[in-house]
Amino acid sequence: MSTPRVLCTQDAKATIDLLRDEHGPLMFHQSGGCCDGSSPMCFAKGEFRVGSNDVWLGRIHGCDFFMSASQFEYWKHTQLTVDVVKGRGASFSLEIPLGVRFLIRSRLFTEEEEQDMAPVFAGDEYPVEA
User: Is residue 126 part of a domain?
Assistant: First the structure.
């Protein structure tokens, strides 16, 4: 099995479950922009339009996770873990009304992990689940 590029904590999974119950299928995008743009943003699936300037990193708890291609250039050697903490972020992410916000914890891949990395795809070419 290849090394996943993005993971999520149990707390993040519980929050995703709450949001999915209310909003249906979800997706994540991390742009690396200003304000709270460096935090992963959770949207109803399809609410945020992705394209060739985005990179699909994988799925967390059944949700596609995308990042802007320019941000991925900085983070491509880093495994991301989506977590959730109490507090209000400054974004349009779906978890904000719950009084929590998603955040990224990261670590560099080991040399061994980098030998067997999960593939990435352009946002307009990622593998859609059946």
Answer: no
Number of domains in the chain: 1
Q: Which CATH number fits the domain that encloses residue 94?
A: 2.60.300
**Token pair 């050697």: residue:** 77
Task: Please tell me the pTM assigned to this model.
Answer: 0.91
Nearest to 91 by CA among 27, 22, 38: 38
| Tokens encoding 73 | 């250039």
C-alpha distance from residue 123 to each of 15, 46, 83, 127 (Å): 24, 12, 23, 9
Closest CA to 42 of 8, 5, 71: 8
In a domain, 45, yes or no: yes
pLDDT per residue rounded down to tens, the chain (130 residues): 799 999 999 999 999 999 999 999 999 999 766 555 578 999 999 899 998 899 999 999 999 999 999 999 999 999 999 999 998 876 789 999 999 999 999 999 999 999 999 999 998 888 877 4
Structural domain boundaries enclosing 71: 6-115
Q: Per the domain annotation, does 125 fall within a domain?
A: no
